[in-house]
Amino acid sequence: xxxxxxxxxxxxxxxxxxxxxxxxxxxxxxxxxxxxxxxxxxxxxxxxxxxxxxxxxxxxxxxxxxxxxxxxxxxxxxxxxxxxxxxxxxxxxxxxxxxxxxxxxxxxxxxxxxxxxxxxxxxxxxxxxxxxxxxxxxxxxxxxxxxxxxxxxxxxxxxxxxxxxxxxxxxxxxxxxxxxxxxxxxxxxxxxxxxxxxxxxxxxxxxxxxxxxxxxxxxxxxxxxxxxxxxxxxxxxxxxxxxxxxxxxxxxxxxxxxxxxxxxxxxxxxxxxxxxxxxxxxxxxxxxxxxxxxxxxxxxxxxxxxxxxxxxxxxxxxxxxxxxxxxxxxxxxxxxxxxxxxxxxxxxxxxxxxxxxxxxxxxxxxxxxxxxxxxxxxxxxxxxxxxxxxxxxxxxxxxxxxxxxxxxxxxxxxxxxxxxxxxx
Length: 424
Fold this sequence. Notes:
The chain is of the alpha/beta class. The chain has helices spanning about 5-25, 30-50, 50-65, 70-75, 80-95, 135-145, 160-175, 195-200, 215-225, 245-260, 275-290, 300-305, 315, 335-345, 355-365; strands at about 105-110, 115-120, 125-130, 150-155, 185, 205-210, 235-240, 265-275, 295, 310, 325-330, 350, 370-375, 395, 400-405, 410-415.
């Protein structure tokens, strides 16, 4: 890249961020009714312009092999009539949620008569960097605008035509409904250097959210000069306790691993109490092998299931995103917790047990964003949690943790009402 090109790119990123800031400032006074009308009309237009969306998506699918996308990745990119309907329904669901902005979270009255309110407010401008899934474009825009934020969308080049077609519809409807058009902007350059320029604009951008591979997320976390909501990886565990219902446990393990393997809330590690391992592991490993899952286990696992191969330290820490599962047998719940806290990624961890005492200890002691008790790890999801949609799942502890929906895209301010009080 020449110096002139670099300056042009830097100027483009700065102007995009400035436009987003102006839109965010204007969006503060837009009514809930206007935002909801935008969401509903956008959903209707997405349905009405299905042919345009499918034509744009066909261009992306045609180019997919040139980007090195395999069949599974191309399927994530693909739009169909059913998937477009799903996108529209999510936007309508978000419109049904109560308006978050202006919500009074807490109130109190001080002895001197000052009345305090803690009031929910937008974050401002969100820079969202994400993978090549067209539905994520619509989800992120809907969540950000409903929560009063402007969003700069930097999607993968593999979905460029699909994302542009979606954003064009959202912006057209925004203009019609009185939403600041630049509340939703799609970065129009594929150059990776653009990401770095945006991350260096903390005076214009309030929050960065990366959603994609670990390399992308680590780059954003390292370069961002503004706060970042993120998770690096999803090494999710299922622990089968000594007092587990083993039929339930087998069902949960297989679903957690196999229902969809290439996602962040799929199980990557299985931990089994030694008391139930002889009766449980051979059976569940056979079920997993029937799904073509490779078992990598410790010595106890391999003794109980000869089809397993030896697991390494790296395997226990790995997010496989495919048909591999690490397995360890432990003598106690304490050892299970220690294993998970050592190797886990603080994303989603599950216990299967009939003991409320064990469940409570596990939920208290495991350091993770979401604890599942007798349920699949696959439920750690914004839609499944009733958030309507999510812009990502956070393993951070500040400012949001777990699936990030409308409320996680807000902050708060204190509004103090007085009647002439002065401080002595």
